[in-house]
Amino acid sequence: MAQPSPNGHGPQSSKVRLGGMALRNGLLVHGPEHWAVAVRTDEGDVVVGSGPKLRFQGRLSQMPGVRGVARLIEAFAVVPMARRAVPQARLPFEDPRVIGTMAGASLLSALVRRTVPPGLRRETAVSVLGAAPAAVALTRSELAAYHGAEHKVIAAHEHDADPRTVPKEHPRCGSTLVVPMTITGIAGNVTARSLLRVGGPLVGPAVALAAAAISVEMFVWSERHGDAPLARAFRWPGIEIQRVVATREPTEPQLNVAESAMREILRLETP
């Protein structure tokens, strides 16, 4: 998922900032105020839908540590809206294999928490299990191809290029957050559960929220500092995840679906 910058600024600030989510049969893309979705149905038709976004307003939503989480919530809140508008849309986790993996990973995580002593080994195992459903989802070539199509049409918009000529990897993809969120999440859980001896069902969600906030602020810093060595190092794991497993080159029909979503979002977001 390519993410809009939490503060709305960046290298291509003269352009409408867009983010997106690959679907199993299309693309969901969102801008500052609206979202648009385009999917190819089982009959081969392209169906397009759109609508306004949920927005967090006010000074609090712009504060560091809050703004990134607020933008992530806004991005994910459009998913049920798009599904209601276009029922033919198939979400990434609407797959029996993925649902089974989620159930299995949840059970194994609970077992690990009960049987493995608190510490780095336990938290690393739980983090790996938590990533399993996404890994299984991306083994479906259609989802990975639409993920590549998402990056291509957004990059083409940002650089006034043909999407067929730009890379399938994008530096603002949510995969850039995977490694920092994993590391900060493990560190936070080890600190809370092992060092501070804090327990209870709220520890995990609290640590996950803090890890997301910290990681998004790191993301913002890396975008502002462009080609600085540390910024490039921060983005590198995410680019490699995209290159190796998370994206594939889309077919022409898949790219056409992504372009339909882009035309709709730009119609709504361009004055």
Structure characteristics:
56% helix, 4-stranded antiparallel beta sheet, alpha+beta, 271 residues, 8% strand
Write the layout of secondary structure elements.
Layout: E1 19-22, E2 26-30, E3 34-40, E4 46-52, H1 67-85, H2 96-115, H3 120-137, H4 141-159, H5 178-195, H6 203-224, H7 229-246, H8 252-269
Antiparallel strand pairs: 1-2, 2-3, 3-4
Task: Explain briefly what this protein structure is.
The protein has eight helices and four strands, in the order E-E-E-E-H-H-H-H-H-H-H-H. It is an alpha+beta fold and 271 residues long. The chain has one domain.
Give the termini separation. Answer: 25 Å
- Low-pLDDT segments, ≥5 res: 7-12
Tally of contiguous helical segments: 8
Largest beta sheet, briefly? 4 strands, antiparallel
In spatial order, strands of the major sheet run 1-2-3-4
Overall average pLDDT:
88
How would the global form be characterised? globular
The rounded Rg comes to 19 Å
Task: Please tally the β strands and state the result.
Answer: 4
What is the succession of H and E elements? EEEEHHHHHHHH
SS strand fraction = 5-15%
Number of domains: 1
**Structural class by secondary-structure content:** alpha+beta
Structure notes:
With 271 residues, the chain is an alpha+beta fold. The chain has one domain (19-95, 140-266). The protein has eight helices and four strands; from the N terminus they run ββββαααααααα. A four-stranded antiparallel sheet has the order 1-2-3-4, sandwiched between helices. Mean pLDDT is 88; it is low at 7-12.
